[in-house]
Amino acid sequence: MKGRFTGLKDVQSLPDHRNIPLNRVGIKNIRYPITVLDKARGMQHTVANINMYVNLPHQFKGTHMSRFVEILNEYRGNISVKTFQKILQEMKDRLSSDEAHLEVEFPYFIEKKAPVTGTPGLMEYWCGLHGTLREQLDMVALAKVPVTTVCPCSKEISDFGAHNQRGEVRVWVRFREFIWLEDLIECVECAASCQVFSILKRPDEKYVTELAYSNPMFVEDVVRNVFLGLKKLKGISWFYVEAENFESIHNHSAYACVEASNGK
C-alpha cells in the first residue's frame, strides 16, 4: 500500500511565475482544546479558535497547509504566552517564511457572585492572544467584556426613568510582563455603569438597576475610564480600547475608541 503513494507530486512547491508575494496564507478557524492560566484556580480548560498564517514568497505556488496542524499537534496542551514564540519560530522554519502569525481566541469563564445574595454563576468572556514573529516577537492580549450603561442625557431630560443598554468593551494590550486576564476584565467592568452578571435574584436586580441609574455614562465615558484604569496596570506598554453600546431606543450602536502607549 505504501508504494502507491511514493513519488507523489508536491504541487505546492512548484514555482509560480506571476511574481506576486502574499502577505498571509495558512489555516483559519481551526477549533482546538487548550489550557489557560486561571488566577483563582490555577488552570482552566477551554476550546480555542485558532488562525495560523505565514507570508508566501513570490516564487512559491502555495504553502503546505498540513504543516500548520502538525505544529499545533506538537504543542498540544502547551500553548501559552511562554510557548508562543517557539510555535511561531517553528512555523517560520517549517514553512520557509520570513514571518509567522498566530491568533488564539477562546471563551474564558470566571465565577461571579451576585452582588446582594451572593448567588454564584459562571460569566463568559471572549479572550485571546495574537502573535507575529518577524525579526522580533510582537504579542497582543485581548479581552471582550460585556457591560451595562445608562444614558446620562436620557436621565437628565426625563421626568422619570432613563434608557439603558448592554454594551461590549474590547481591549487589546501589549505587555512587558505577564498580565492576568482577570485584571484586564476587572479594569473594564469598573469603568461602566454596572457589571453584567449571569445570575441575579430579585434583590440583586434591584441593586444593579439602581447602581447603574446612579452611575450614568456615555460610551465616551466608558473608554476614558478604561484608559485611566489601564494606565495603572503594571507591565502594559500599549493598549487600544473600543466600546460599543447596543442602543435600546436607537437603530444604531454608539461607539468610541482610544489608543495609547504606556510609559510606565
What key phrases describe this protein's structure?
264 residues, alpha+beta, Urate Oxidase, nine-stranded antiparallel sheet, 6 helices, 9 strands, 41% strand
Please summarize what this structure is.
The protein is 23% helix and 41% strand.
How would you portray this structure in words?
- It is built from 6 helices and 9 strands.
- It is elongated, with a radius of gyration of 23 Å.
- α1 runs antiparallel to α2.
- By secondary structure, the protein is an alpha+beta fold.
- A hairpin with a 3-residue loop joins β1 and β2.
- It is 23% helix and 41% strand.
- The mean pLDDT is 91.
- The termini are far apart.
- Strands 1, 2, 3, 4, 5, 6, 7, 8 and 9 form a 9-stranded antiparallel beta sheet that branches.
- The protein has one domain: Urate Oxidase (Roll), CATH 3.10.270.
Percent range for β-strand residues? 35-45%
The CATH superfamily title:
Urate Oxidase
Would you tell me the structural class of the helices and strands?
A: alpha+beta
Any idea what the shape is? elongated
Number of structurally distinct domains: 1
Rg is: 23 Å
Estimate percent helicity. 10-25%
> Roughly how many Å apart are the termini?
63 Å
In the CATH hierarchy, the architecture is Roll
Poorly predicted regions: none
